[in-house]
Predict the 3D structure of the following.
Amino acid sequence: MPESIKLPTHHTSRALQTVDSSLQTNLQHFSSRKFFELEQTTQLLSEFVKNNPDSIDEYISLGRLFRIRGYYRKAFKLHRNLLYRPSLSKKTKAKILTELGFDYLESQTSDYGQDYFERALGLHRNLESAEEGLFLSYQRRNQYINAITWIKKICKRHPEKKSTLARVYAELSLAQLKNKQIKQAKKSIKKSFKVSKEEAFSFLVRAQIELHEKQNDLAKNTLQSFIEKWPGYSLFALKKLEDLHYETNSYGDFGNCLQKILAHHPNNSYVHHYLANHHIKMKKNDAAKTSFQEALHANPHNIHAVEDYLHFCLDLKEIDLAQSIVRGFSLALKSKREFECLSCKKSFAHIPKDCTRCMGWNTFRVRYRFEGP
Ligand SMILES: [Zn+2]
């Protein structure tokens, strides 16, 4: 993906220094990709290249900014014009070609930039960004074998990318499963786990294969480990796990299964919530109440749990309890509320008279910031 933007390293005048330092500040926020800041950075860079028409890195960065903001044509035009510059070094040419590859890749036209990445690598062997681009270009076209070749090569230098390799093996496995090539699918998912056991997607594919093979207990185990490993993403797996218990006529066991997860991960609000609903279906109202309370204790902002808990109380005609749930929830909401200045993005816990940073009036919007379960 786009590397950090190269800053101008030489200053010829004070004016330039000013541009440079505001660029620095803007680029520090760059990762947040706020439109406002991207817009400002674009303006600063445009200004810079106007005064320094010979610059190359800044032009490359400007094109990359256009790409990030979705102006692919602009990005492409700007990068392509750079290629016509006289006496470019091979290295620089390779860099520009790589950018062009990404312009194509990200614009999601039928061309995936493959040609540009290959040309870049022809000029500059082992150019990492071009290798990455070529990998992505194969992966997006579901050309898994080629994608695997390239990501393997990248992994040699960057072992931290192993989870990506595991992911591609899992994608291949899923494609094979869909093509009814079960044997190959099993092989690929095995490879995926051999490379890394930290890729969430691989767990889901493995569960799918196990289900296909009617190995229901294995599938239950796989889903269970998924929920334990990625609590923040566990909603989908919980739903699948519940369905699986229904389909295999073992819904009574679903509660035990959830209890087992909670024994090691008592703070997963989603699991408590599912357990509460399970208790309701098993007609254990007291246990359901406890589980709802646990769910909201673990995450007071779990709005689905609040909703189900309220319905449950109203069904039982427990109006006092329902009222206290509503009160608790609005308190929890307020604790996550902030007022953001629309002009300068400064946040305040209470609505101020005017913005203490930019002195703006009446330009605040309400925002809520929530965490996962
Ligand atoms: Zn402000």
About this structure: The first strand starts at residue 337 and ends at 341. The longest helix spans residues 90-107. The beta strands are 337-341, 347-348, 364-368.
